């Protein structure tokens, strides 16, 4: 996952909640035997997989330990870029790619400062955008739309404020969306699927908790 753009804000939050200075996923990113957020690709990817051009470029934003990029690479996609703020995540993804003889261009990066120099057929982000300010993730989506080929797809999922952020991510969730907010940013695209839902989640050493989420799959039509 990528992180907040303003280190001063995070520093203040860390002073208030010192026990959560390091997010829980950093530890599991060090372990190649487990996937922090499950080992199956997101269902929104498999739902449109038959519509995707395997020769097109893919961008995985806030890729974590890379389950979605690894899945697409195993299916024959060869132009995959993936970045995350976490050094541990990227090092793990690179190790896993080498272990499976897969080609993934992975690097440590922040979506707030990312500059598009390529045109993509698929841009995806799962559970990342709410970790930067609303202004920053709005700007990123606008830039990513311009960098998407006509006929290309976006799959974007982020947490909303319909449910308070769980304690494990509360200090980092500075850009929680309003319900339906992200859908409105794609009104000029073909919206293939939009979901607003609440789900139960759990992680190592973190009790079960709720998240409210919006997820959209959209295609650029012009």
UniProtKB/TrEMBL annotation:
InterPro entries named in the record? SAM-dependent_MTases_sf, TehB-like_dom
One GO BP annotation of this record: methylation
Coiled coil regions, renumbered to chain:
none
CDD domains annotated for this entry?
A: AdoMet_MTases
Ranges for the Tellurite resistance methyltransferase TehB-like domain? 54-196
Q: Which UniProt keywords apply?
A: Methyltransferase, Transferase
Name of the protein this chain belongs to = Methyltransferase domain-containing protein
